[in-house]
Specification:
Chain A is of the alpha+beta class and 381 residues long. Chain A is 31% helix and 30% strand. Chain B is built from one helix and two strands, in the order H-E-E. The chains are: A alpha+beta (381), B alpha+beta (53).
C-alpha cells in the first residue's frame, strides 16, 4: 500500500532508522518498532490485509488508527517544503554600487560592491581579514544591494539570490557558498550540503560541533584553536560529495558578547578586534580571523552536540542518531539530490555521536584532546 | 526517479495539524520528520531587529 510514497533510502543506526524521501528531501528518524510496522504496511496488498496482520496484537479501533497514522505519516514525508522564489523579478542595476572592497582568499581574488554601509556590515566583518588592494580588476565581482524590500546578490551581474531583507541570512548563505566554491574551485552542485555547525581539526581528522545558537560552539572551537587545533569552519561547515570531507571556510569565527570574558584570557588581542553590532538582541559580535587560510579539508569522524551550561561539570557522552539529526537537519542546507542523500546516510553511518556538556575551559580542552587522540588511534568502539 | 506525489490534496499545514506535531508517538513507535533548509544560510538571526531597517 502507498508504495509510491515509500522512502527512497533507508539506513539502520542501532535502535533507529533514518529514511530519506526523494520527492520532498525529507529525512525521517523512526524507531525499530515503527519501522517494522511501516514495512508491514507498505508490503500489504490492501488495508484489510494490513489490519489482518495486526489482528492478534491490536483491537479493531487500534488497527484503524495505526493505518490512518501511517498513511498520514507517509503523506507528510512526501510534502515539499515551501520555497520562496523571488529571483525572476530582478535585473542587475549598476547604479546601486556604493562601496567597493577587494579580497584575496588563497590564490583567488574577488571584489564586492555593497549598496550601503549596513549591507556591507552583514558580509564584510566576516571576511575583513581577506581584504586586499588589487592592481587589476578581479574577474569575480559580487554585487549586494537592496531593491525595495528585497536584498539581492549578483555574481558577475548574474542574479544568485533574492530574499526579503529580514531573511538576509539567506543572502549571506548564498554568498558564502559561492566563496567556498571560489576558494576550493568547486561548483555548487559538488557539495552534499552545508551544516550549521563549526568544525575543528587536529590535522588528521575533523569533529563537527553542532547545537543551537548560543550553546557555545564557536567559543569551544576558538578555545581549541588556542590549544593547537585548527578551526576548519565556523557556523557553516561544507561537506563535499567526492570525498565526504569537511572543507575549510575562510570566514572568521563569530564570538558573541557573552563569551568575550571567557575567551579574553586565551585569545591574544581580543580586545583590539573590531566589534560589530548586527541587531539589538544578538548584541556585540567580534570576528576572530582563522589562523590558517590555505584551502584544506579533513575527514569528519564525530559529531558533537555542544551544550555550554554554567556551573556544569564537563561530560562527553554518546548519544543516538535521533538526537543529532533533530538538531543537525533543520538548520542545515542539504542538496536535494539522490546521490548526495545516499552519500549522506552512508557518511553518517561511519560517525560517532556525542553530547558535550561543559563550563570549565581546562577540562573541556582535555576532553576534546582525548577524543581526537581516540579518533586518530581508531579506538572508538 | 522522482515520484509523482503532487496529486495529494493535503497541505503541509493540514498534515501537521492532523498529526499534532512533527515528532509523534503512535501506538507502534516514534518518528521524526525533518526538513533541511532549502537554501544555504548563515545562522538564523535573532528576532531582535533587522540590521537593514
Amino acid at each position: 500500500m502507498d508504495t509510491k510514497l515509500s522512502p527512497t533510502y533507508q539506513k539502520q543506526f542501532g535502535k533507529f532508522w533514518v529514511l530519506w524521501f526523494s520527492y520532498s528531501n525529507v529525512y525521517s528518524v523512526v524507531d525499530n518498532d515503527f519501522k517494522s510496522v511501516l514495512d508491514l504496511y507498505l508490503a500489504s496488498k490492501s488495508l484489510a490485509a494490513f489490519k489482518g496482520n495486526l489482528e492478534n496484537t491490536y483491537s479493531s479501533n487500534q488497527q484503524a488508527s495505526i493505518a490512518n497514522n501511517l498513511s498520514l505519516y507517509l503523506r507528510n514525508c512526501n510534502i515539499k517544503a515551501d520555497i520562496e522564489h523571488l529571483e525572476s523579478l530582478h535585473k542587475f542595476n549598476p547604479t546601486q554600487r556604493q562601496i567597493l572592497k577587494h579580497y584575496r582568499a588563497g590564490t583567488n581574488t574577488f571584489s564586492i560592491y555593497f549598496g550601503s554601509e549596513s549591507i556591507k556590515n552583514i558580509i564584510h566583518p566576516q571576511i575583513a581579514h581577506l581584504e586586499t588592494t588589487l592592481k587589476h580588476k578581479s574577474t569575480t565581482i559580487f554585487d549586494v544591494y537592496l531593491k525595495d524590500d528585497e536584498l539581492v546578490l549578483f555574481k558577475n551581474q548574474i542574479l544568485l539570490k533574492a530574499a526579503k531583507k529580514q531573511n538576509f541570512h539567506f543572502i549571506q548563505g548564498k554568498f558564502f557558498m559561492h566563496l567556498l566554491c571560489l576558494v576550493h574551485q568547486k561548483k555548487e552542485t559538488d557539495w552534499i550540503g552545508t551544516f550549521h555547525g563549526s568544525a575543528i581539526s587536529d590535522g588528521h581528522n575533523a569533529i563537527l560541533c553542532v547545537g543551537k545558537s548560543g550553546k557555545g560552539k564557536s567559543t569551544l572551537c576558538t578555545l581549541m584553536a588556542q590549544k593547537g587545533f585548527t578551526i576548519v569552519a565556523d557556523d557553516v561547515s561544507p561537506i563535499l560529495s567526492k570525498d565526504r570531507h569537511i572543507y575549510s571556510n575562510p570566514s572568521a569565527t563569530s564570538i558573541k558578547h557573552g563569551a568575550f570574558k571567557a575567551l579574553k584570557a586565551y585569545v591574544p588581542n581580543l580586545e583590539n578586534l573590531t566589534t560589530t553590532t548586527l541587531n539589538a538582541s544578538k548584541g556585540a559580535i567580534k570576528y576572530i580571523p582563522p589562523t590558517i587560510t590555505n584551502p584544506s579539508s579533513y575527514p569528519c569522524k564525530a559529531i558533537v552536540m555542544v551544550n555550554y551550561k554554567e556551573g556544569s561539570t564537563t561530560q562527553l557522552k554518546k548519544v543516538s542518531i535521533k538526537k543529532v539529526m533533530e538538531t543537525l537537519i533543520p538548520d542545515s542546507w542539504i542538496s536535494h539530490n539522490e546521490t548526495h542523500a545516499e552519500q549522506l546516510l552512508n557518511w553518517l553511518s561511519t560517525l560517532t555521536f556525542y553530547e558535550l556538556t561543559y563550563s570549565d575551559t581546562e577540562s573541556v580542552t582535555t576532553k576534546i584532546k582525548s577524543l581526537f587522540a581516540d579518533l586518530k588511534n581508531h579506538q572508538i568502539n | 526517479m522522482k515520484k509523482d506525489n503532487n496529486t495529494y490534496k493535503i497541505t503541509r499545514k493540514d498534515a501537521i495539524k492532523k498529526m499534532g506535531k512533527y515528532a509523534a508517538i503512535t501506538a507502534v513507535g516514534t518518528f521524526l520528520i525533518l526538513n533541511p533548509q532549502t537554501s544555504q544560510a548563515q545562522s538564523i538571526p535573532d528576532p531582535g531587529g533587522n540590521p537593514l531597517d
